[in-house]
Amino acid sequence: MDNLFDSIEEKSSSYSVNKDFTSLEAWKKFQIVKIFFYKEILIKLPKEELYDLGSQIRRASISITANIAEGYGRFHYQEGIQFYRISRASLYELKDHLISAFELGYISQDLKEKGLKIIEESKRLVNGFINFQIKQKKGIKK
Q: Is the pLDDT of residue 112 over 50?
């Protein structure tokens, strides 16, 4: 039987009290996306949308950072990668909500473009982070 500790992917010497999910560039950028939607999009929605589109935006906005945090706390790379992918999917969901808010006349073209820009920047960061994690995972399997 294999030694239980052979499957450990994180070395205890790599732990740092100053390094956690909040030090990840993808999480930091997702914070900006979340705050953008809360402070610039949700306030533009009419009352009748607060429980429909507004609720969907709130859930997806929270999901993008929460799934990065949860993935970071997972023990195995593959588990973390799955949460990062869920986070990325929520980012795509927010892009759709942004487009919907524009098409329904709730936000301006400028606000839509601003949102699309930070979403695209965020997608690049999270895709790079996911690819990095995949490479890390491959490096563990020797």
A: yes
